[in-house]
Amino acid sequence: MRVMCRFAYLARVSEDCNFTPESKQMADNYKKIDKDFVLSDSSVNVYDYRLLTSGYRLADFAANPIGYYMHGTTEYPREAGVLVKWEDLRIDGDKILAKPCINLSHPRGQRTVDEIETGFLNAASVGNIVALDISTNPADYLPNQKGPTVPVWFNREASLVDIPGNYNALKQLFDKDNNPINLADYSNNKILNMEQIFFTPANLAAMNLSAAASKADVENAFANLIDKANKHDKAVKDLADMKTAVIEKEVKDLVAEGIKEGKFTVAQGKVIEAQFIGNPTGLKSLIDATPKYNSITGAINNGGDGTAAELKNLMDKSYDELDRSGQLERFKALDLGAFKAKFKNRYGTEYKGK
Question: 70 or 291: which carries more pLDDT confidence?
């Protein structure tokens, strides 16, 4: 796999390479070019993924900093030998820089030197890339990036190329055991094609963050916002539940008071409670407008006056006895409920009159 290189120039060409004293006798077979080549940076490459300079393992490549022409071509395959050895390998800001030392014994050696010195060959790209970590986290993506981000990596070679962007390169990533990595495994469309959101300084300030806030700062701020939102939702629910409980208790208390005051019976109270469960104001208005219900039992139990005695006497008689004695209407007027009970007992049906 290879990456497009941008390039920078330095003016001088030296006469030999920095080899050991034993190899000085072969100095005429090598030429060091005093020109910086950009091997890589953190931008998105032509295959829509990117290699982070911050995670570049420079020492791994520096142990054997070799390269070829176009990563090996039909005319100049790798079997033709190493074309370039990279020197002064270093990181400058976001760029990985190095200077080429050309193998003049390579069949393309002198031609390569000529093309570099005349400005016709200006690019390089890293190849045989070992990806030690791969991220599909949208936070690691640049706008319009479709492939994954490689935070930790190194390359096993870096070749000189004729076309910046190198469309013949960067087709493959490898794991630490040199097994090919299938980029399709990291092409989750839901992740890669999602719209990325960028915060303005005003957005960050609203979260109590500065414009220089890190990814971790933003993630922590979001976590705090989510926690606060959850607590707010719980508080709102608890308040609503409390309000409901208070209203229900108020309705129950009003019904109990209505029964106590003789406004309606226990059975009637259960029906009224169900009807006014969330409306204590309406229930209170109903109770205030309802006259006290004086049942025969209540009158008798409350100590009784002449009316209580009369009711007790009438209550002891059957419906037919009351009818024959002409006391039925009087009994009905004194206690409609008791009258209805006797009517139903006599005829087996509910009384429909008033």
Answer: 70
Name residue, tokens 């009258």.
339
Q: Residue type at 189?
A: N
pTM: predicted TM-score of the whole model, two decimal places = 0.46
User: Which is more confidently placed, 95 or 187?
Assistant: 95
149: closest CA among 302, 43, 271?
A: 43
Question: Poorest-confidence range of 127-131, 199-203, 276-280?
Answer: 199-203
Q: How far apart are CA 55 and CA 59, in angstroms?
A: 12
Asked if the model's pLDDT at residue 129 lies above 50, the reply is: yes
* pLDDT tens per residue, range 317-348: 889 999 999 998 888 888 888 888 888 888 88
SS (HEC) of the chain: CCCCCCECCCCCECCCCCCCHHHHHHHHHEEEECCCEEEECCCECCCCCEECHHHECHHHHHCCCEECECCCCCCCCHHHCCCEEEEEEEEECCEEEEEEEEECCCCCHHHHHHHHHCCCCCEEEEEEEEEEEEECCHHHCCCCCCCCEEEEEEEEEEEEECCCCCCCCCCCEECCCCCEECHHHHCCHHHHCCCCCCCCHHHHHHCCCCCCCCHHHHHHHHHHHHHHHHHHHHHHHHHHHHHHHHHHHHHHHHHHHHHHCCCCCHHHHHHHHHHCCCCHHHHHHHHHHCCCCCCHHHHHHCCCCHHHHHHHHHHCCCHHHHHHCCCHHHHHHHCHHHHHHHHHHHHCCCCCCC
Residues 85-107 have pLDDT tens digits of: 999 999 999 999 999 999 999 99
What are the backbone dihedrals phi and psi of residue 174, each rounded to the nearest 5 degrees, phi first? -130, 155
Tokens linked to 107: 């069949």
